[in-house]
Amino acid sequence: MKKFVCLIAVFLLCSHLSAREYHVSVKGKDTNVGSLSAPLRTIQAAADKAMPGDVITVHEGIYRERVVPPRGGESDEKRIIYQAAPGERVVISGSERVKGWEKVQDNAWKLTLPDSFFGESNPFDEQIYGSWYRGKGRPNHTGMVLLEGKRIRETFSLEDVLQPLDGKQPHWYAEADGNGGPVLMNFEWVEPVGGKRQTSMHASVKGGDAAICIAIVNRWPFGYLKDGSEMYFDQVDFGTGSDTLIFQAATLGKGGTVEMRLDTPDGELLGTSQVTNTGDWEKFEEFCLPMKRVLEGKHNLCLVVRAPELPEKGKTSIWAQFPDSVNPNKAGVEITVRPQVFYPEKTGIDYITVRGFILENAATNWAPPSAEQPGLIGPRWAKGWVIEANTIRNSRCAGISLGRPTFGHSHHYRFMPPRVYPEADGGQTEQQLLDYFAHASWNKEDAGFHVIRNNHIYDCGQAGIVGCSGAAFSVIEGNEIHDICLDETFEGDEMAGIKLHFAVDAIIRDNHIYNTIRGLWLDWGSQGMQVTGNLFHDNNVQEDIFIEVCHGPILLANNILLSGYSLNLSQGIAGVHNLVTGKVFAGLDRCAGGRYSFFYEPHGTVSVGNVRNMGGDLQWVNNHFAQKASLGNWDECLLPIRYKGNLFTAGAHPDKREKDFVEASGFDSAIRLEQRADGWYLKMNVPQEGITNPKSRLVTTETLDKAIIPQQAFVNPDDSPIAIDKDYLGNKRNAVHPYPGPIEVEKSGAQEWKVWPK
């Protein structure tokens, strides 16, 4: 027995000793061992060496590289940690300093680079592209030009750049010898002359998606078509005979060639046709494909997409405007050259911590819920990541991505294609894709369970944090997110400070979200979520919080919502102890004729129903509504709405059906937010009616009704009951008659509280 105990002790000691700390320094060498005295030069070199349990400590400096972790940890206790050395400023950048600018005229300078400078992907050639993205005919690129860390905006005419600045915002313009990026075209239907049309809705694609979203209902063309993509149209009817095939396609790039073959990619070549720029990814035109021989009757076609040949020594030219006093060869001018900063190449890289860095300047592409969602940093479909205490800035699209690695969500709008082909690097089997396409179900243990905390995220073109399914069971807390998707030259439907789909049991708490196109957007299947103790303001393009086609239960509690449009809600939501000063709306879903969406088993990822979004099933309890936040702006809600203990001030009024409320609409609560050197302060006049409110009661799982559609209670992710017994600041609430709103108040009159940082 003693020998056995000793062996265990030796094994544990060896396991502990095997954990290593690798050091990285700008003064190191990748041939070093990685010790403090002999550090490595690149973070990637350390990543290649690190094993579960190891720590990578990076010392002060700028590291211009993309970190691609080849492996992750084994558990929460045995993870791989990437950390900035305490007290040291460590930057991981997706950009490079560039010189060689030549002055053209006025404020315009020109830089010409060989395409080889950019490596595998040229962001000044690659266009932003994806489902739910609308470029409005503009070839928005993933690249950015930065002056002293500040982004210069893209324009689409050389003439614009050649104009003198005269105090206006500077711009840049680029021309490249590439094809506009790897995506070549979208493709919708085929029709033999004299035969019958067959659409992509009844066909299959390999190396692309069978459901690219365009701004027209019930049209789902093939998208993400690259060099070698294969489209299968079965039993195409050529009638009594045809020697010409007509098809419809769209591209904003340089297009490509479509080969028409019988049956397979190696089948008889019947003809080719060139697709050229149609003016937008959603602007479809007809193209003619002459055939080498006549076909009659029905045949299986395989259409193969081929990219145009690129010049052997292609070049990219960038024109940019700089202020009069700036020489870009001497100033801090950088261009983005890498699509991500910290991002795996494969799925399943679990249990990684990234802590204390400045992560910046990534040429990210669009992050839709229907395909791979790239971000400046992200786990790419893994579990157990901790991303904490970082500054994340200047991502062309998304800052942090917690999303899927391959196609998916668009298929929830349409029926299944005849065949499904997994992407080679998509991390999903055919059966997993079928489960997700048909039922929005996935394996709970594959992804999620992340912690995203105490990061400063700003200057991202699409979203601060984005994720479809991969944010489930995650905690997003203590982050400051601002300046997201402002003054962009494109539109889309996936843009917000935080945008999540299917975020089952996720918790979003204690964040500060402001100056964004939309604060928080929860979409499709966000069940069991809690949104608590967050500060929203100046999200004045759209809403502070938008919850779309979800059945609940979703808890909104102790939030401060101060934008002009505070809430736009679906159903199954309990709003408890919030301060709301902007407009409030809820109603029947009318998009695409009224959508059905999924709900899940409790705390799970297997869907158990797909139900129409009828609107209603809202519970408003102990909130403070003021200014524009009157209730009753409901659009034909078919499910009941309940109210209890709400306070109304400064012109806000209750729903005419509401009975148990505190009326102080004529009282000027003078709610305002003030920024000072040490943070943000909420100032308010407190009415006596709120202090003596006899209608409020402590809110718990027992006092809230179950969400009607899933018939599930408002509980914590571990299934324990909730109790809103603490306020926004963490103070205990009055257990008998808690004060309405996010902050427990004991006396009337002028009050102020520091609300950020907490």
Topology:
Blueprint: H1 2-18, E1 21-24, H2 43-49, E2 55-58, E3 61-64, E4 80-84, E5 90-93, E6 95-97, E7 102-105, E8 108-114, E9 133-134, E10 145-147, E11 150-154, H3 158-162, E12 171-176, E13 185-192, E14 198-199, E15 204-206, E16 222-225, E17 230-237, E18 242-250, E19 256-262, E20 269-275, E21 285-295, E22 298-306, E23 315-321, E24 333-336, E25 352-355, E26 358-362, E27 386-388, E28 391-395, E29 398-401, H4 430-439, E30 451-453, E31 456-460, E32 463-468, E33 475-477, E34 480-484, E35 491-492, E36 496-501, E37 507-509, E38 512-516, E39 520-523, E40 529-532, E41 535-537, E42 545-548, E43 554-557, E44 560-561, E45 565-569, E46 571-576, E47 579-580, E48 583-587, E49 596-600, E50 607-612, E51 616-621, E52 624-626, E53 634-635, E54 641-644, E55 646-649, E56 661-664, E57 672-676, E58 679-686, H5 688-691, E59 749-756
Report what the structure shows.
The structure is a single chain. With 758 residues, the protein is mainly β. Among the domains are: 96-178 and 311-336, Immunoglobulin-like, CATH 2.60.40; 185-306, Jelly Rolls (Sandwich), CATH 2.60.120.260; 502-756, Pectate Lyase C-like (3 Solenoid), CATH 2.160.20.10. The protein is 6% helix and 37% strand. The strands form 9 sheets. Strands 1-2-4-25-27-30-33-37-40-43-46-51-54 form a 13-stranded parallel sheet, covered by helices on one side. A 13-stranded parallel sheet has the order 3-5-26-28-31-34-38-41-44-47-52-55-56, with no helix packed on it. It is globular, with a radius of gyration of 28 Å. The relative contact order is 0.08. Residues 4-16 have low confidence and may be disordered.
